[in-house]
């Protein structure tokens, strides 16, 4: 976020409404992470922000609209699917993100629970996750292809399968970590795999 | 299953009861795979087997008891967590299982959905999945250690992390495959990883 001056934020109706929306999204994030989307009730979200369900529906017209707001908010918080500077290597960006994720188990849980739940019938998060995987596979695949051009991808590695596998390993190790945080070192497992794929400069 | 003779099965009260239990478990499997455990209702399961909810509860005293029966039944169907013959290599057993899983998307979906859902508050499947991961990590870790003793584990590979990573990659690639079956070749991604870890004889 950038601001044009360091002065205190205005507290007009717009700022208040924006703050309320964010409070609702943060509460919904907690509730969906704890109970899943289907198991999480709008009433519980409304209770957490001290609002009636009717007032809440003034900000988000449906539970599915709230879900999408939560997913997009999550992307902002984690920087996920987002940018790395042109100077940062793929491996460094992955490990940095993995280490960050260790500090926000609730955010990782939300993602893991909703992603799997979105496989169930008529789930409103399905398109979000399908597109997210497509985008991530494309992005990593491009990075591996670029490394191959520099002669830094291990011989025989297929960029597309490596992209899908890296995402898969990351998702799966997060699940094991959420089940039992002491059982696995997420970042080290990812580092092992990246060390295999990518040759040193 | 073994039978002492090839004669038609007896249709006494015990056999009928056993058959009903199995029908309930199969219906519950479908319902939980489609809607998750929390979203799947006992009434829908009862409807699918043409039984009242009260009669169903005579066979399984609670929804959570039914969940555990479904998870155990799944293990029987997939042979998961189960045996490989001493002659079969780890890699061959993994690829065989992965190819089999491609033929039973509903079973894979049930596992993926319930596993993630078990991370949510007070989920009755949590212990099952925690123990399953512990057992699988131990088993694969032992196999990698045995390969290391034969000089067939790639230098620098840590057996415990490789075990966790293999399971993680497998889980994660299944999720991507369920989202979009044409987007990934599950068995080939696993084969790539095993080819990296394990040196040829």
From TrEMBL, chains A, B:
InterPro entries hit by this protein: BetI_C, Homeodomain-like_sf, HTH-type_TetR-like_transc_reg, HTH_TetR, Tet_transcr_reg_TetR-rel_C_sf
Protein origin, superkingdom: Bacteria
Gene3D superfamilies named among the record's database cross-references: Tetracycline Repressor, domain 2
Keywords attached to this entry: DNA-binding, Repressor, Transcription, Transcription regulation
Record's keyword annotation contains Transcription: yes
GO-annotated molecular function: DNA-binding transcription factor activity; transcription cis-regulatory region binding
DNA-binding region, residue range(s): 41-60
Domain HTH tetR-type: 18-78
Coiled coil: none
Signal peptide: none
PROSITE patterns (alphabetical): HTH_TETR_2
Pfam families: TetR_C_6, TetR_N
Name assigned to this protein: TetR/AcrR family transcriptional regulator
Protein source organism: Arthrobacter psychrolactophilus
